[in-house]
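REVIEWER CHECKLIST
Item 1: Sequence provided? yes
Item 2: Single chain? yes
Item 3: Sequence as submitted:
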Amino acid sequence: MDLRSIANRVSSQVNPNIIVTVSQSTGSTIGRGGKQTPAYAAGVTGPAQLQALDGSDLRQLDGLNLQGVIQAIYLRGNLAGVIRPDSAGGDLVVIASQPNVPARLVGTYLVGKVLETWSSWTKAAIVLQNGDPNA
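Item 4: Structure as written out by the authors:
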């Protein structure tokens, strides 16, 4: 039984799904002068559910020093926050301008923390990095 699909059919009646592009971290490269630059796989586009954080989510984020615009996102597949042993993580989620998205939420987000992960879907806290999805 696919509970995520059942829940999404109900929640999308009130809060429609949006289209996002996810770029998974592949680690980093070392540039000129030894500067470390994050590297990402090509982006994959698909539907997601953007919601406010609830009390349980806020308790999980307590102490992480995340500031700014923070949203919960539900989507199929896996996202990753920082994975220090693998020198990877910090996936990016780009939300482009679209009818169901207020302009203040358009931009590039960094996965701050994975809140729930299941075999076919993930819930994560994402933090707005800029207001320009093309940056």
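Item 5: Key structural point noted by reviewer: Residues 31 and 87 are 16 Å apart (CA to CA).
Item 6: Recommendation: ____
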